[in-house]
Every structure is written in structure tokens, then in C-alpha cells.
Design brief:
seven-stranded mixed beta sheet; 160 residues; alpha/beta; 27% helix
């Protein structure tokens, strides 16, 4: 996978669930809204766990679950912030959710997480955070985090 601005790329090793959740929470607290986060990688790589941490970081109290079969879930956070979580794994036709995805990307109060976005790259903001999630063992995950633009780079810098 290529990134437009790889000077803000680093690896994060998580030894347990708590560390993965903390990474997502810290990312959410330092992201400038609207922010797009693209999640790619292995099944079981920790994508939904990161999203749970992100939800906690914006103050959402709802239970976060994978939107694999629903495609899109929304979570209300504090101070008007919202988490929009898309899972496009089962999607074959871009038009099914393109309008909904485009609208959420324009919302100034939204942190938008998109899993399996490879068919949608032409519609996504060029300034985004891309996180590759890799399963290492039952408890361990490896995350490669990259910023593809100036706004995203600010959020990524604080994670290092």
C-alpha cells in the first residue's frame, strides 16, 4: 500500500487489548474533526477494537460492534462529536453507500472510520489516517499508522 506523505508513518505494537483500546482513544482525543481514518489489514487484526477506543475517546457510551452486516453504525459522543463507522468488506457496488459516506465525510463533527475502503479510495479525502492492523497472536497486534496529509499528520504526531 502506498501513502502520499509517509514522513508521518510509524509502527505501534500492542501487547494486549487495553493497549489497543488506549491507542484508539488517544487518536480520537487528538484528531481534528472532521477526520477520516481508514482501517485495513487482517481479519482479527484489531480494527473493531481500535474503533471501540476511538468511541471512548470522543465520549461515546454506546456499545460498539462491527458493522459488517449493517455496513454503517453511528455513535454519539460528547460535545456534539460523532463516530461514523463503516465496514465495506461485503460491498461490491460503490453506489450502495456512496452518498451516505460522502455526507458523513462533510460533517464537521464527525470522526469517520472506514474498514475495507479499497473500492472507495477515489471518493475518500486525500488527507486521512491509514492504519494497517495485523494479528500477531491471541493478544498481540501490530499497527502501521500513516498520515496522508497535513491535518492527519498533526493527530499522528502525538501518537509517536
Amino acid at each position: 500500500m502506498e501513502f502520499m506523505n509517509t514522513d508521518q508513518t510509524f509502527n505501534y505494537s500492542s501487547k494486549n487489548l487495553a493497549q489497543s483500546l488506549a491507542l484508539g482513544e488517544k487518536l480520537a482525543k487528538h484528531a481534528s474533526l472532521p477526520q477520516l481514518i481508514e482501517l485495513v489489514g487482517d481479519l482479527g487484526g484489531g480494527k473493531t477494537t481500535l474503533v471501540k477506543g476511538i468511541a471512548a475517546g470522543i465520549g461515546a457510551t454506546q456499545t460498539v460492534t462491527s458493522p459488517t452486516f449493517n455496513i454503517h453504525r453511528s455513535y454519539e459522543g460528547s460535545h456534539g462529536k460523532r463516530l461514523e463507522h463503516f465496514d465495506l468488506y461485503r460491498l461490491e457496488d460503490d453506489e450502495i453507500v456512496l452518498n451516505e459516506l460522502t455526507d458523513t465525510l462533510k460533517d464537521p463533527n464527525a470522526l469517520v472510520c472506514v474498514e475495507w475502503a479499497n473500492h472507495f479510495h477515489k471518493h475518500l479525502s486525500s488527507d486521512r489516517i491509514v492504519i494497517e492492523c495485523h494479528f500477531l497472536s491471541e493478544n498481540e497486534r501490530e499497527f502501521k499508522i500513516a498520515a496522508t496529509g497535513k491535518t492527519s499528520a498533526k493527530a499522528v504526531r502525538v501518537l509517536q
